[in-house]
Structures are given as C-alpha cells and as structure tokens.
Amino acid sequence: MEKLDARGLSCPEPVIMIRKAMLSGGTGYEMTVDNTASKENVTRYAQHEGYTVTVAEKDGEYTLTMTK
After folding, report:
1. 4, 9, 11, 21: the active-site residue
2. Does the 2-67 domain belong in CATH 1.10.3810.10?
3. Is 26 a catalytic residue?
4. Taking Cα atoms as reference points, which of 45, 64, 48 lies closest to residue 56?
C-alpha cells in the first residue's frame, strides 16, 4: 500500500497527488490530510475512481485508506 502525506497542503493539491499516484495502477493507498476539505475532496475523487474509502481521525488529522 502506497502511503502519501498531504498534511499542510490545501486543495486541490491532495487530489492532484492522489490522482498521480492512481495513474500508476496500484490497488491501495493511504493518505494523511489535516483539513476537512481535503478529506472530503480526496474521498469523493477516490470513490469516483472506483475505490472504497475508509477514514480514521486522530488529533485533527485524517487517514484515508483507499482500496479497490
């Protein structure tokens, strides 16, 4: 599973980051973001691309796990 750290980035940067990673054809990704907008936008994009997304929140940071 590829791990991506998008903390400190504002949209659309996290979406662009996950899009580039998904172009490699992997089946699983874990991304850490630190704001609600990025969490929602990355989740929406991953679901649109056919991934199942689970979100875990800890100390104001969100870990999004995306699998196909």
Report:
1. 11
2. no
3. no
4. 64
